[in-house]
Amino acid sequence: MQEFGFPVGRLPDEALLSGLATGDPELAVTFVRRFQHRVFGVALAVLGDPQLAEDIAQQTFERAWRHAQIYDSRRGSVATWLTTIAHNLAIDAIRSRRTEPVAPEDLDALLGAVTETPERLALADEASSRLRAAVAQLPREQGRAVVMAGIYGMTAQQIADREQIPLGTAKTRIRTAMGKLRSTLASPKRGDHV
Questions:
Q1: What number of other Cβ atoms are within 10 A of residue 10's Cβ?
Q2: Rg of the chain over all Cα atoms, to the nearest angstrom
Q3: Distance (Å, rounded) from C-alpha 80 to C-alpha 23?
Q4: CB distance 40 to 85 below 8 Å
Q5: pLDDT in tens, 35-66
Q6: Which tens digit of pLDDT belongs to each residue from 156-167?
């Protein structure tokens, strides 16, 4: 690119991602340099372990290289896409190291943290932020039940035992919460034109 008088470092993110996908070494190096601090920062913020964060950053760029062709600019910027990959890989690393997920009795604190923060908005695409907002709007007992079932994979019987409620109540909470989530997520967002 420099032979045409256009510095590689000034190329748009999408052009660098395309260069990464095609295996152009100069564009790939420029792409990594442009985003390495951001990707490492996301991984470090989630993990708190610099060595593991370096591994996750490397995995992020490998995944970006393998999946560059499916990037869709209509769903968000390259930076958002890349930091989402880093965030998801870091969360997966935490889950794989943990023998038991966060205790369900700690769900109230987690559900309180489900609100939209600048960090979460930067890391998540629009659909996941809508889902988090919808879960946060559920009544507390329904939110707990759907999170225990959906994220922790607990059965209705396990939820009933943990919450000390009848099995039918646990099933109703899950079913009602899922119905509300479907309804909320199916409705057009404000500002959408149908």
A1: 9
A2: 20
A3: 22
A4: no
A5: 999 999 888 888 888 899 999 999 999 998 88
A6: 998 999 899 999
